[in-house]
């Protein structure tokens, strides 16, 4: 594997999940692979789980890790080719990425969308330029439109909690929030669920449709109660509008998920990628209750990253 930026970079989903689950059982079995190999993690935005779990995964594989918060510690980056750089940007992405590529064997990049220009965000402008200029394998640590390491961890978590033969009913339900958040987590979750062997429903207020390229094949409902009927897994997440690009959706506080709403779904497991705005998106009783999978998801971030890094190291050392 050379790039991990979406589900389309995965040849065999089941094999990658199996590799991650094997890594969870025996985390140090492949620690010879990373000897004298360096992972660079580049952050343009905050991160807690992605940063620590990806570092942990690399350490388990015997790699060295360097981390840089480019947003705080780096030069302001210019992205436009041919720009006359007489303003606020100090360094062109082509120079910065090329230098980073020389210091590392694999690079990870976190870069949120700016949520101003949909076409630019959805073209993955920054990630594509970074890949083109660093010239080494790249793993997305959440890009403008997708968060594949999160989705892989989510799929592992669903598989761990589903021993039955029938397909589980998985529901992604929009949640209220005080800010305009990216669509990356729900886009990515939808893309992975549409590829996995599950019965997949998305629920959101009218007008909050996600980009069709990621949701094709999903059942989409605007009635949360109807969507939750018979759910086995309920994934809660806010996102800002794709149609009215980047606008937060106000006045839907009743979409908060609480215990009363899932009383009729029996044993539904509750999922969230974190960080979560408690009692805005989801109630404490659900987050802290026996059906909550949030910490298992966070734990599985390590093994998701480890499976991806292992595939990349195997490709480098072949
Ligand atoms: C990010 C998002 O894409 O929704 C990262 C999730 C892994 N979340 C936030 O930016 C939350 C910010 C907030 O103020 O709650």
Q: Please identify the top-level CATH class of the largest domain.
A: Alpha Beta
Any idea what the CATH architecture of the largest domain is? 3-Layer(aba) Sandwich
- Write down the CATH topology of the largest domain: Rossmann fold
Assign an overall shape. globular
Q: What is the arithmetic mean of pLDDT?
A: 97
Helix/strand order:
EHEHEHEEHEHHEHEHEHEHEEHH
Q: Can you put this structure into words, describing what you see?
A:
This protein is an alpha/beta fold and 318 residues long. It has helices spanning 13-25, 49-60, 70-73, 93-103, 118-122, 125-134, 148-160, 184-195, 212-215, 224-228, 284-287, 294-317, and strands at 3-4, 38-43, 64-69, 77-78, 91-92, 106-110, 138-140, 169-174, 199-203, 219-221, 233-237, 269-271. Helix 9 (212-215) links the parallel strand 9 and strand 10. 44% of the residues are buried. Residues 179, 181-182, 184-185, 273, 275, 277 line the site of N-(3-carboxypropanoyl)-L-norvaline (SN0).
Chain-wise SSE layout:
Blueprint: E1 3-4, H1 13-25, E2 38-43, H2 49-60, E3 64-69, H3 70-73, E4 77-78, E5 91-92, H4 93-103, E6 106-110, H5 118-122, H6 125-134, E7 138-140, H7 148-160, E8 169-174, H8 184-195, E9 199-203, H9 212-215, E10 219-221, H10 224-228, E11 233-237, E12 269-271, H11 284-287, H12 294-317
Parallel strand pairs: 1-7, 2-3, 2-6, 4-5, 6-7, 8-9, 8-11, 9-10, 11-12
This protein binds N-(3-carboxypropanoyl)-L-norvaline.
